[in-house]
Automatic annotation (TrEMBL):
The keyword Heme does not apply. The keyword Iron applies. GO terms for molecular function: metal ion binding; oxidoreductase activity. Keywords: Iron, Metal-binding, Oxidoreductase. Belongs to the iron/ascorbate-dependent oxidoreductase family. It comes from Digitaria exilis. It comes from the Eukaryota. Residues 198-298 form the Fe2OG dioxygenase domain. The lineage of its organism: Eukaryota, Viridiplantae, Streptophyta, Embryophyta, Tracheophyta. InterPro entries: DIOX_N, IPNS-like_FE2OG_OXY, IPNS-like_sf, Oxoglu/Fe-dep_dioxygenase_dom, Plant_2OG-oxidoreductases. This is Fe2OG dioxygenase domain-containing protein.
């Protein structure tokens, strides 16, 4: 979608709105009744599973991981091997960036319809409801997706720290995917072998205090287009919510734990046995909140489709085969709206979009590099 074709209208910087001391919010941020965070069932008592990565692939912990993937699609990871000092430094430098004057942050602008830089992502129309959030999003790996001009030079250690942090998170994603493969009865290297040179991006989300948190969302409900996503959230307050059995479950921060969720790619590969899960962020009237999110996905030239192990007469093929780059383009040019982006891959939704041979599930060649 060309930048010139996208008209997004007035998009205020929410930190600047907060600094004015306003007691309400602009209409573009006010959600319709059913979309407001207070509407619907919110559960603060349930907790997503906690996985001790240091105990994997021990039988008990591997079974806990399997249940977490099957029943939640979300879990927190402790004892993950990433130094606490590095996590703290990444959080502190991200916060320092968001505290810079607006004119300094605007040196790294996110273009309308773009997904890298500072600003608002996933905004494609003038009447679209906006999230109460500022973002800095950057492509990390492979090198060709990087846009160096959008990497902040202030704070001084930002680039160096982000590269070290991203390398550690990449290693964690690889280890977790190996264990997730084991929970499915697959060889540990299954996903690594098929994913090629994985795409990795990071997005820092900053949610300033909001005078009317009951009317807005910090981040609209969505699932992720990744294979796995790793989120580091600060301890200031809870804001992430996961949809579970029709209720929004609050994810309470654990010091130096990392939140992991399964993305659309794994739902397709497992033919729905493991599902990506809708999640959202809510705001707070008194406190700001920061999260650092890493998306880890197959290479763009990888073809995805349900693995033959998960297709049978009892469980027919639910997703068509598609090129992951094609899906990524579809995802980043769609607004965040629950799991609607995955309709792209569902056979009952895609039959009019794909050739007949693409909508059938051969037991061979389900996932291959092109």
């Amino acid at each position: 979608m060309a930048t010139a074709e996208i008209k997004i209208g007035q998009v205020d910087d929410v930190q600047e709105l907060h600094r004015t001391g306003l007691d309400t919010v602009p209409d573009r941020y006010i959600r319709d009744g059913n979309d407001r965070p207070g509407c619907g069932n919110v559960c603060d008592l349930a907790h997503i599973p906690v996985i001790d990565a240091g105990e994997l692939p021990g039988g008990d912990e591997l079974n806990k991981l399997r249940l977490a993937c099957e029943e939640w699609g979300f879990f927190q990871v402790v004892n993950h091997g990433i130094e606490e000092e590095l996590l703290d430094e990444m959080e502190n430098l991200s916060r320092e960036f968001f505290m810079l004057p607006l004119e300094e942050k605007e040196k790294y602008p996110m273009e309308p319809g773009g997904i890298q830089g500072y600003g608002h992502a996933f905004v494609f129309s003038e009447d679209q409801k906006l999230d109460w959030c500022n973002m800095l999003a950057l492509g990390v790996e492979p090198s060709f997706i990087r846009q160096p001009k959008l990497w902040p030079t202030t704070p001084a250690r930002f680039k160096e720290t982000l590269e070290k942090y991203s390398m550690e998170i990449r290693s964690l994603c690889q280890r977790l995917l190996a264990h997730i493969a084991e929970t499915l009865g697959l060889a540990p290297g299954t996903f690594a072998d098929m994913f090629g040179e994985c795409v990795q991006a990071v997005r820092m989300n900053f949610y300033p205090p909001c005078p009317r948190p009951e009317l807005v969302l910090g981040l609209s409900s969505h699932s992720d287009g990744s294979a796995v996503t790793v989120l580091q959230q600060d301890m200031s307050c809870a804001g992430l919510q996961v949809l579970k059995d029709g209720a929004w479950v609050t994810v309470h921060p654990i010091p130096h734990a990392l939140v992991v969720n399964l993305g659309d790619s794994l739902e397709v590969l497992t033919n729905g046995r493991y599902k990506s899960v809708e999640h959202r962020a809510v705001t707070n009237a008194e406190r700001d909140r920061l999260s650092v999110v890493t998306f880890y996905a197959p290479a763009y030239d990888v073809e995805l489709g349900p693995l033959p192990e998960f297709v049978s007469d009892e469980v027919p093929c639910r997703y068509r085969r598609f090129n992951h780059g094609e899906y990524s383009r579809h995802y980043v040019t769609s607004r965040l709206e629950g799991k609607k982006t995955l309709d792209f891959a569902k056979i009952n939704q895609a039959t009019t979009m794909a050739a007949p041979e693409e909508t059938t599930c051969s037991l061979f060649g389900q996932v291959a590099s092109i």
